[in-house]
Amino acid sequence: MGCLPSRCRCEERILAPFIAHYNRCGDTTYEFKERLDVGSHTPQPEALYVDLHTGHRLVVERKNLIWPRDFAQIHDSLHHVADLAGSKAKPHLRADAPYELALPDRIRGKMHQLRLHGERMGDAIIRNIEAVHSGKTIRSRVPGREWSFRMEGLHERDWDEPRTGIRYTFTGEMTADLTGVEWGDIPDGLPQEFERLLTSASLKFANHGNAVRILVLDFMGDLRYPSLFVEKLFESVVVPKNVDEIWMSTHVLVTELHYGWIHQCLWPQLGLAESELCGETVVPLDT
Hints:
Elements: H1 11-26, E1 30-35, E2 47-51, E3 57-67, H2 71-89, E4 98-104, H3 111-127, H4 129-133, E5 138-140, E6 147-151, E7 165-171, H5 190-205, E8 211-221, H6 230-235, E9 245-253, E10 258-267, E11 274-281
Parallel strand pairs: 3-8, 4-7, 8-9
Antiparallel strand pairs: 1-2, 2-3, 4-6, 5-6, 9-10, 10-11
Helix pairs in contact: 2-3
């Protein structure tokens, strides 16, 4: 699953790997016919597909299930703070040395507060840079504003990472308890958020009773490992009758070097997750 929801509106391109997988699984030949949600005055699913051999129709609605709800905003804030601190400290760092700036992957606050936090972090690094260069780790343990900065050893960098400069590490909250999703629990509010997406999809499928109606989900934030909780999640909601199938389709790092897609049928029966490479790699491979 991606770091953040895609801002691309080219659903045909995003859904193409899923449709190819769906065709292989069902021995069908669905091909893209048209975008349905462009220029329509009524709610419509994203795309219509037609089977070349049978003429059967299939409509797909794609949704991101994000938890917590403000995950995207929090993630943008995190990168903003890290970039501010790193940019301020960079002129005072050794050009030939590797450093690590570690922050929790949850950070909240108004923009002026976040900007001040990033600038203060940069100032603290500058004030203590001699201690860093002597091998010490400097840090803050202020609740909600934890961070640490240190020099790394060259052996700590993977072969595909830059040998010098700041490496940003975003970890689980440094002082907070786990959300429960990591243990397969369903946090309060998640079923309601899922039902909101299901209702939205159902409204879009209302005028497509002559087609197979599929909801494709991608999971974001704390929901990066749906196999831990997805069965419990479906037990907590009622799937609308006009939603025929629900699948997961997500673009992730499948191996240490290769990106690809993971597809899994979630409903009406939970299937096995299947992965496929897409040709994209972490770094360009020699040809």
